[in-house]
């Protein structure tokens, strides 16, 4: 709270500026806008800057500087009689004969006298005013208000307490006011019957300033009106955080704080889990491609920003995600079976809805896998995908245009393992390569030309690193099988030459190096005497 002082207001060195205030019979008024305060400072500051203190006597200062025309410095002007000084605003120039010829040193500008600047404001009927409230701010700027004791004591507990404990005095001073404009406006609101009409056109930041001052003054009616305003008005950008922090700092009860905070908090116990599951279900079942794609991007972004849900709901969220994964896998397998029926020629001609559903379920699984990988809980998904032998067998019976998105799931798993985002067991990695590497090789040419998001180098690096995590014998089996495919398809097959080089060194070079190092160590071993 600002410092409080009771006493008389000194009239010396003050400049009073009367600001016109429109006062209605019920006390409605027009507070001086910020432009008025700034205009007052600008109008008074140049006047103070023009003042210069009298120059010191020649006997006390060996070097003095006088403002004169640059051309007159070359001539020797006639002696000028000293000018009479009637006040501090007069400037005095020493006689030319006292000036020393040669270069003069530039002295620092004299300190401007700190003259108090004051604005006078009146509220209500000025003839019946019985109290002068002075708000003192920085740089000697102050506001003197003509007010009424009964109105201030009735609306503000701060004024009621001070006026009841002090001896009768027509003056009251509040020092170090950080926001005098809002102090004036808040005190003016004590004269208004309908404060909502005064606040309705104000901005959210300004109402927060009024709320802060109203709390300091104990103006509960104003605080309640500010909270009603904040509960109804939209918050834009950073205003939400400012409103919440300001409302949470309120120390008074019974002012309607809860309606404001209900906008950002819920009283329902543990609601995010069911809500998140419902959102995921709506997105996964959407048939509108554009809306589904945009919402998938948005939900993925929001989940990345908040990877751990509040209230310890992370485990329940993971369960919900895996339930969605199993549902999508079951639907995808069902669509593959339908598309791979014996009447394949007829089914391929009329499977546009089936192919569309396959693409939809594959895209849903890829989205769910991305969410699980971001949360570093995708190991179970790798186990589920590696166990889809039937789906991999049916994969060869469908045209590439219908099945290629399924290979995108396999590619994303290899990338995750290569980056260390997924850490499945050795058996799971081996099963994954045995089941899904060949279908990925078969669709590789289509993936390069038909998928915009497909990054060949990243996928090839992930496949190679996954292979190199297996025992050396398994590496050899998989890489030799890949070599046969690569020599037939060329660039239409994943380029695993880096992994092949590592396997080669492990197989043919490393044993020789280890054997050679062993021989050197045995030769350097000192013989123990018998």
Question: What do you see in this structure?
Answer:
The structure is a single chain. Helix 17 packs antiparallel against helix 18. 55% of the residues lie in helices and 6% in strands. The protein has 22 helices and six strands. Residues 4-30, 45-51, 55-105, 109-114 and 345-350 have low confidence and may be disordered. The chain starts with a strand and ends in a 6-residue tail after the last helix. It is elongated. It has helices at residues 34-50, 149-155, 157-165, 180-189, 195-199, 204-217, 220-232, 239-248, 257-261, 272-284, 289-305, 314-339, 344-349, 352-374, 379-386, 389-395, 400-419, 426-442, 444-450, 456-468, 472-489, 497-524, and strands at residues 3-5, 14-18, 116-122, 131-136, 141-147, 171-175. The longest helix is centred in the C-terminal third of the chain and has 28 residues, at 497-524. The protein is of the alpha/beta class. A hairpin with a 4-residue loop joins strand 4 and strand 5. It has a six-stranded mixed sheet with strand order 1-6-4-5-3-2.
Provide a quick synopsis of the model:
This protein has 530 residues and is of the alpha/beta class. It has 22 helices and 6 strands.
Which structural class do the helices and strands define? Answer: alpha/beta
Instruction: State the order of secondary-structure elements, H for helix, E for strand.
Output: EEHEEEHHEHHHHHHHHHHHHHHHHHHH
Strand content: 5-15%
Low-confidence stretches: 4-30, 45-51, 55-105, 109-114, 345-350
Record the strand order, biggest sheet. 1-6-4-5-3-2
Gyration radius, rounded: 42 Å
Helical residue percent? 55-70%
Biggest sheet: strands, sense, closure? 6 strands, mixed
Shape: elongated
Give the number of helices: 22
Report the end-to-end length measured between terminal Cα atoms.
Answer: 94 Å
Quote the average pLDDT: 77
Give the strand tally: 6
């Amino acid at each position: 709270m600002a410092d409080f002082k009771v006493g008389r207001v000194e009239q010396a060195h003050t400049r009073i500026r009367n600001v016109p205030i429109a006062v209605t019979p019920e006390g409605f008024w027009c507070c001086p806008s910020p432009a008025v305060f700034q205009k007052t400072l600008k109008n008074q500051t140049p006047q103070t800057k023009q003042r210069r203190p009298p120059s010191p006597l020649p006997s006390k200062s060996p070097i003095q500087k006088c403002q004169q025309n640059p051309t007159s410095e070359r001539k020797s002007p006639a002696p000028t009689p000293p000018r009479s000084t009637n006040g501090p605003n007069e400037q005095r120039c020493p006689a030319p004969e006292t000036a020393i010829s040669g270069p003069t040193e530039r002295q620092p500008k004299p300190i401007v006298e700190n003259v108090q600047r004051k604005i006078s404001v009146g509220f209500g009927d000025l003839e019946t005013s019985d109290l002068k409230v002075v708000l003192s701010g920085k740089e000697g700027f102050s506001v003197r208000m003509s007010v009424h004791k009964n109105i201030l004591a009735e609306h503000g507990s701060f004024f009621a307490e001070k006026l009841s404990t002090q001896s009768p005095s027509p003056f009251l001073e509040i020092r170090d006011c950080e926001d005098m404009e809002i102090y004036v406006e808040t005190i003016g609101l004590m004269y208004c019957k309908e404060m909502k009409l005064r606040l309705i056109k104000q901005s959210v930041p300004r109402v927060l300033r009024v709320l802060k001052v109203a709390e300091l003054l104990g103006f509960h009616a104003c605080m309640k009106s500010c909270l009603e305003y904040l509960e109804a008005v939209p918050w834009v950008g950073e205003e939400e955080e400012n409103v919440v922090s300001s409302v949470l700092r309120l120390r008074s009860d019974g002012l309607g704080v809860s309606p404001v905070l209900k906008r950002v908090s819920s009283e329902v116990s543990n609601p995010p889990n069911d809500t998140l599951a419902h959102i995921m279900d709506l997105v996964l079942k959407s048939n509108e491609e554009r809306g589904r794609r945009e919402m998938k991007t948005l939900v993925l972004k929001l989940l990345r920003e908040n990877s751990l849900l509040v209230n310890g709901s992370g485990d329940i969220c993971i369960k919900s995600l895996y339930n969605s994964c199993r549902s999508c896998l079951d639907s995808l397998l069902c669509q593959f079976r339908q598309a791979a029926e014996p009447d394949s020629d007829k089914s391929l001609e009329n499977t546009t809805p089936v192919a569309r559903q396959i693409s939809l379920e594959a895209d849903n699984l890829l989205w769910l896998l991305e969410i699980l990988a971001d949360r570093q809980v995708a190991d179970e998904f790798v186990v589920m995908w590696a166990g889809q032998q039937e789906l991999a067998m049916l994969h060869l019976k469908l045209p590439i245009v219908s099945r290629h998105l399924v290979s995108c799931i396999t590619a994303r798993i290899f990338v995750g393992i290569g980056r260390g985002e997924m850490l499945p067991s050795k058996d799971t990695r081996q099963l994954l390569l045995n089941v899904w590497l060949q279908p990925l090789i078969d669709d590789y040419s289509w993936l390069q030309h038909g998928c915009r998001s497909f990054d060949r180098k990243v996928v090839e690096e992930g496949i190679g690193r996954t292979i190199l995590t297996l025992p050396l014998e398994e590496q050899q089996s998989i890489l030799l099988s890949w070599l046969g495919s690569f020599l037939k398809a060329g660039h239409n097959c994943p380029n695993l030459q880096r992994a092949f080089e590592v396997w080669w060194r492990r197989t043919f070079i490393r044993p020789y190096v280890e054997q050679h190092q062993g021989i050197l160590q045995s030769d350097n071993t000192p013989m123990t005497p018998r």
